[in-house]
């Protein structure tokens, strides 16, 4: 389950049943996490810039106030769900990342994950008074950073903490040792003074594509979150990640691929579309010209109530530059008017389901059975009621079809994802 700012998607903050101040509400975050945990979801995933790229006159900033503090609050009020936060390898020192994520892992009794990203936006870099380094440098630093972080996690020996009150020995000093690692970009002496959690140490995630991201995922990640709009593309992304893991000497089953899915769950298709119109209609005038580009047509924003004419449909050709274009054309051919075409979410970040729970369940089953994904990264439209709608509507269908568990298999994120034990560096990679 994706959790961004306090509300959900575009326009969520303006829905009459939403508290418009929940942007700063940690209580709201806790409620949303508890709803997801009631549905037995394996993990929450918090993206992060951190930057302010929003039209703040009209929309809340995209990101959470502070992902680590949010997950600390959530950790105290939940007991099973995994807690994955994004942290930049470019703009953080490995020692800080190692310390914060392992502390969260200990606090949550083994439920923490780190989505290691290199940050590609100049707006983020500017917050640190820097420019975004060239991609080779960003990824070289990322490899060094992840290895340093994992080495620091392992620097307090697994069994070093004896806390023996009778003898007075707190820990075995010879098992808490400096790492003394130094690379081209980052270095740390260590040790990190944090004992292992119930899962040993946090799990690594990676988000996004590209050859560099793939190599990073192949070596270190147990979970990859991707953006993909068709079963064929998802299948090839998943296969590429699995091959990258194999090249790194790992078992491909050690890395799970999660595709984004945005949900507007309603009683039926019409009310789903109406809900999305209510949420996103303020963007339509600006999106119609882009929809036109996707279809190779000139579309008039003043004619939202009309479907495409026979002539337009005959002349339309999906743009090869946008992977969403074929789906947009398919929806247009079904005869929906322009407003409803946009309400289908044809220009969103991930595939959109706007309709009854069974539609979401069918989509997930189809992609899963086609071996295109190991799971989904679900973004409900409005957190305040959209998480419950997903949990109460879609999860029982998936459970009845034997596609989703009815209970957590264990207590840690490592248990939930079936990730093999690891403490410190992965010896297969470190070599
Ligand atoms: C689904 C998805 C989620 C992402 N989440 C984040 C994020 O939370 N923070 C971030 O800085 N980058 C995020 N990214 C961006 C990628 O990490 C990556 O930087 C981007 O795809 C650009 O590739 P490059 O680093 O090779 O230039 C995400 C990408 C995708 C596809």
What would a concise description of this structure say?
With 431 residues, this protein is an alpha/beta fold. 41% of the residues lie in helices and 13% in strands. The radius of gyration is 23 Å and the shape is globular.
Write the layout of secondary structure elements.
Elements: H1 26-38, E1 43-46, H2 67-77, E2 82-88, H3 94-107, E3 112-117, H4 122-127, H5 135-153, E4 161-164, E5 169-171, E6 181-182, E7 187-188, E8 203-207, H6 210-220, E9 223-226, H7 231-247, E10 256-265, H8 269-280, H9 284-295, H10 310-315, H11 325-333, H12 338-343, E11 352-355, H13 357-369, E12 375-380, H14 383-400, H15 413-417, H16 427-430
Parallel strand pairs: 1-2, 2-3, 3-8, 8-9, 9-10, 10-11, 10-12
Antiparallel strand pairs: 4-5, 6-7
Helix pairs in contact: 1-2, 1-14, 2-3, 3-5, 5-6, 6-7, 13-14
Q: What does it look like?
A:
By secondary structure, the chain is of the alpha/beta class. The strands form three sheets. Strands 1, 2, 3, 8, 9, 10, 11 and 12 form an eight-stranded parallel sheet that branches. The protein has a two-stranded antiparallel sheet with strand order 4-5. Strands 6-7 form a two-stranded antiparallel sheet. It starts with 25 loop residues before the first helix and ends with a helix. The protein has helices at residues 26-38, 67-77, 94-107, 122-127, 135-153, 210-220, 231-247, 269-280, 284-295, 310-315, 325-333, 338-343, 357-369, 383-400, 413-417, 427-430, and strands at 43-46, 82-88, 112-117, 161-164, 169-171, 181-182, 187-188, 203-207, 223-226, 256-265, 352-355, 375-380. The chain has two domains: 12-264 and 409-430, TIM Barrel; 268-349, no CATH class. Bound molecules: flavin mononucleotide. The site of flavin mononucleotide (FMN) has 19 residues, from helix 6 and strand 9. Flavin mononucleotide is lined by residues 47-49, 86, 117-120, 135, 207-210, 212-213, 225-227, 260.
């Amino acid at each position: 389950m994706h959790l961004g700012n306090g509300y959900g998607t575009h326009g969520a903050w303006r829905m009459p049943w939403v508290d418009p101040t929940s942007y700063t509400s940690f209580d709201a975050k806790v409620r949303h996490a508890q709803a997801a945990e009631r549905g037995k979801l394996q993990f929450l995933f918090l993206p992060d810039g951190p930057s302010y790229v929003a039209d703040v006159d009209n929309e809340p900033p995209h990101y959470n106030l502070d992902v680590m503090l949010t997950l600390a609050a959530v950790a105290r009020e939940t007991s099973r769900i995994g807690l994955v936060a994004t942290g930049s390898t470019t703009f953080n020192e490995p020692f800080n990342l190692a310390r914060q994520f392992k502390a969260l892992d200990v606090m949550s009794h083994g439920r923490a994950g780190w989505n290691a990203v290199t940050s590609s936006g100049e707006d983020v870099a500017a917050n640190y008074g820097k420019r975004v380094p060239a991609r080779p440098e960003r990824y070289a630093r990322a490899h060094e950073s992840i290895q340093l972080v994992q080495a620091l996690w392992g620097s307090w020996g697994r069994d070093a903490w004896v806390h023996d009150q009778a003898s007075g020995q707190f820990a075995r000093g010879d098992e808490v040792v400096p790492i003394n690692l130094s690379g081209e970009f980052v270095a740390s002496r260590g040790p990190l003074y944090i004992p292992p959690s119930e899962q040993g140490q946090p799990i690594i995630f990676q988000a996004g594509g590209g050859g560099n991201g793939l190599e990073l995922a192949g070596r270190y990640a147990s979970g990859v979150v991707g953006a993909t709009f068709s079963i064929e593309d998802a299948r090839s992304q998943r296969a590429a990640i699995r091959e990258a893991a194999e090249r790194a000497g790992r078992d491909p089953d050690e890395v799970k691929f999660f595709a984004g899915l945005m949900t507007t769950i309603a009683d039926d298709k019409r009310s789903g579309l109406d809900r999305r119109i209510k949420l996103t209609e303020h963007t339509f005038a600006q999106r119609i010209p882009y929809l036109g580009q996707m279809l190779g047509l000139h579309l008039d924003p003043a004619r939202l109530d009309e479907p495409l004419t026979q002539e337009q449909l005959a002349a339309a050709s999906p743009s090869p530059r946008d992977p969403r274009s074929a789906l947009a054309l398919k929806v247009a051919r079904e005869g929906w008017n322009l407003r409803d075409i946009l309400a289908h979410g044809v220009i969103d970040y991930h595939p959109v389901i706007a309709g009854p729970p069974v539609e979401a369940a069918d989509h997930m089953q189809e992609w899963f059975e086609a071996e295109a994904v190991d799971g989904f990264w679900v973004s409900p439209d409005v957190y305040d009621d959209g998480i419950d709608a997903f949990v109460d509507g879609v999860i029982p269908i998936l459970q009845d079809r034997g596609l989703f568990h009815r209970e957590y298999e264990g207590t840690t994120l490592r248990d939930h994802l079936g990730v093999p034990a690891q403490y410190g560096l992965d010896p297969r990679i470190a070599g």
